[in-house]
Amino acid sequence: MSYSKKILNLLLVTGGLIVLGGCMEDDTKKQSSSVIETKSVETKTDESNEEKIDVQKVPAVSLPEDFFQKNRANLLEQMEDGSILVLFSERLYGTVLENNEMNDKEKLGAARNFYYLTGIKDSESVLVIKKSDNTAKETVFVSDLDNQEVKKVSKIEDVRDREELQAELDAALKGSKILYVDSGSPMLLERISTEQQKQVEKQAEAQNLLIKNIFSVLGDLRSIKTAQEIEMIKSSIAATKEGIYSMMKTSKNGIDEGLLEETFLQSITEAGTERTSFDSIIAAGENALDAHYMENADAAPEGSLMVTDVGAEVGYYAADITRTFPANGTFSDRQKELYNIVLKAQEEVINKMKPGTDLAVLYETANNVLAEGLIQIGLIQDASEVSKYFTHGLFHPVGLDVHDVSGYETTLEPGMVFAIEPGLYIPEEKIGIRIEDNVLVTEDGPTVLSKDIIKTVDEIEQFMKEQ
């Protein structure tokens, strides 16, 4: 999912770059089935002919039972003694999705930081953790949920009705020195808060508590993915692959962008996903020059390229993949020339993704490769001109948010997952190209989690030719 460099800093509020020392856990639980079912989903072409497209059901995956309990234990180590955390589940920041019915607010669920600590997907709950004498008292307040189920999922024994929250806070704030709340990224000009959180903060201020934002601490913890989290992301990518392949099978000259979006949605649903991780970008021809294009309402001009920036979400974990392919299945010589420049830039950036690599090196690599390619074909004369045609950010973290929470960092660490998305946008030729994959940083170097989704010119043309 691509964004312009001018708004990159704002987007890094939810997709920034914070490095935390640490590594992936090795105790992976084999919770996914090795059996893959195959189903058929019906889509309609613009001539109203029905086509059956085979869609593979993604293997079922889940997080270990103690995942959320471990996350709270890690957070507790970062909290000062004599402090209290009050975390509301209402989702006030993250990827806002409004354009399709799969992504209405009812289905966006809980704030991802809240979910990360509790496993609760409800948007009307509150987590309270009080740390005193280096021990924790954990309480979760819920509305209209089964308390026993909440206990089972969260491993929090003290589950109460939401109406009891204020009385508990009155007692819990007494004797505390610090109140932790989640107010969004410190880089925001204004703090994010619910009305009830503001009331809690006023109450704390009246008792002379120091108020601290827990966002960056949780961003640090979330930036390093466990092996089980990686499996969740891989499942989302597998569903995304099915949607992308269905679009390639359906595509042709004159195909409607909206029909391809519908095809993607139907396919990932059949594959077993819960929703898209962001509103899909299906951009034909010159529409792809706008990296934020989301109308998805035009027909593909003859011989045009389709930029499909899409992602499925499984268990709240996001995928973010972009594939560019010719609407009619065959690249022109010029399209192929430009496409291969972008592909080479992406491959060389990914090869640099080793622990300890400075993030600036990734940008430098992409700019150098793109500039070299554009100079060779005569589109620019000097490397400084590359910014005319590469107009957005190169990478962002991926996880529970498609632009995952973090802050700023300088180097890569094992366990991080990034979307790598170089692109070229040539207004005078009405050509936009972007290629995006999700990459895991490991001790041994990069692992492309989306490597099974075809992306070379030959692979794409052969695949579409066979349909």
For this entry, give a set of tags.
disordered N terminus; 20% strand; single chain; 4-stranded antiparallel beta sheet; 33% helix; 467 residues; 20 strands; alpha+beta; 6-stranded mixed beta sheet; 13 helices
What is the helix fraction of residues, given as a range? 25-40%
Q: Measured on Cα atoms, how large is the radius of gyration? A: 23 Å
| Largest sheet report | 6 strands, mixed
The number of E-state strands comes to 20
The structure class reads: alpha+beta
Could you tell me how far the N terminus lies from the C terminus, measured between alpha carbons in angstroms? 27 Å
Low-confidence runs: 3-49, 95-103
Report the principal-axis shape: elongated
Query: Mean of the pLDDT scores?
Result: 86
Instruction: Estimate what percentage of residues fall within beta strands.
Output: 15-25%
The total of helices stands at: 13
Q: Walk across the major sheet and give the strand order.
A: 6-5-4-3-7-8
Describe, in plain words, how this protein is organized in 3D:
The relative contact order is 0.16. It contains 13 helices and 20 strands. A hairpin with a 2-residue loop joins β19 (437-442) and β20 (445-448). α2 packs across α4, α9 crosses α10 (257-271) and α11 packs antiparallel against α12 (359-376). Mean pLDDT is 86; it is low at 3-49 and 95-103. It has helices spanning 8-15, 67-78, 105-108, 112-118, 147-154, 165-173, 195-206, 215-223, 227-250, 257-271, 333-351, 359-376, 457-466, and strands at residues 38-44, 50-56, 83-88, 126-132, 135-142, 158-161, 178-181, 210-213, 275-276, 281-284, 305-310, 312-314, 317-318, 321-326, 395-397, 417-420, 423-426, 431-434, 437-442, 445-448. Helices cover 33% and strands 20% of the residues.
